[in-house]
């Protein structure tokens, strides 16, 4: 069984920084893409950033230049460094892993439980 566990959320003032982490557990052989999504109350879940196993990244326009996604393949962990945070970044942030090959099987799409990020003005 493969699980994703996020950490690092919290409350921060506008202009501040937070770093989210998401670790995949289980007998994992490989993970194709990993990414971060966010969902504000009453809104849909949207992509924030994702990164492939080779390091190619993709960002939402709203976070370009402020957020940086990275991953440690040896630790099956993805990070999201969030700088210059704005109140509109307030949301529940979810980690996602796509195409996971593990000892327990192949998983197309796995989500973490999420972590709250709140940015006060």
Could you tell me the strand content as a percent range? over 45%
Q: Helicity level, as a percent range?
A: under 10%
- The SSE string, one letter per element, is EEEEEEEEEEE
Q: What is the averaged pLDDT score? A: 96
| Total strand segments | 11
Count up the helices: 0
Structural class: mainly beta
Which parts are unreliable, with pLDDT below 50 for 5 consecutive residues or more?
none
**Overall body shape:** elongated
Biggest sheet details? 7 strands, mixed
Q: Please tell me how large the radius of gyration is.
A: 14 Å
Distance N to C terminus: 41 Å
Task: Summarize the helices and strands and which ones pair or pack.
Blueprint: E1 3-7, E2 10-13, E3 18-25, E4 28-39, E5 46-51, E6 57-59, E7 67-72, E8 77-82, E9 91-102, E10 105-111, E11 115-120
Parallel strand pairs: 2-11
Antiparallel strand pairs: 1-3, 3-8, 4-5, 4-9, 5-6, 7-8, 9-10, 9-11
Keywords summarizing the entry:
0% helix, 11 strands
Report on this structure.
With 121 residues, the protein is mainly beta. It has no helices and eleven strands. The protein has strands spanning 3-7, 10-13, 18-25, 28-39, 46-51, 57-59, 67-72, 77-82, 91-102, 105-111, 115-120. Strands 2, 4, 5, 6, 9, 10 and 11 form a seven-stranded mixed beta sheet that branches. A four-stranded antiparallel beta sheet has the order 1-3-8-7, with no helix packed on it. The protein is elongated and about 45 Å long.
């Amino acid at each position: 069984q493969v699980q994703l566990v996020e950490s690092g959320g919290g409350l921060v003032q506008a202009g501040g920084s937070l770093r989210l982490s998401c670790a995949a557990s289980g007998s994992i052989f490989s993970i194709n893409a990993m990414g971060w999504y966010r969902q504000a109350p009453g809104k849909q879940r949207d992509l924030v950033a994702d990164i492939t196993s080779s390091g190619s990244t993709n960002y939402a326009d709203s976070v370009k230049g402020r957020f940086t996604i990275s991953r440690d393949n040896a630790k099956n962990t993805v990070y999201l460094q969030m700088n210059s945070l704005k109140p509109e970044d307030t949301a529940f942030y979810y980690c996602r892993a796509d195409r996971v090959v593990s000892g327990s099987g192949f998983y197309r799409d796995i989500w973490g439980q999420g972590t709250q990020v709140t940015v006060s003005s």
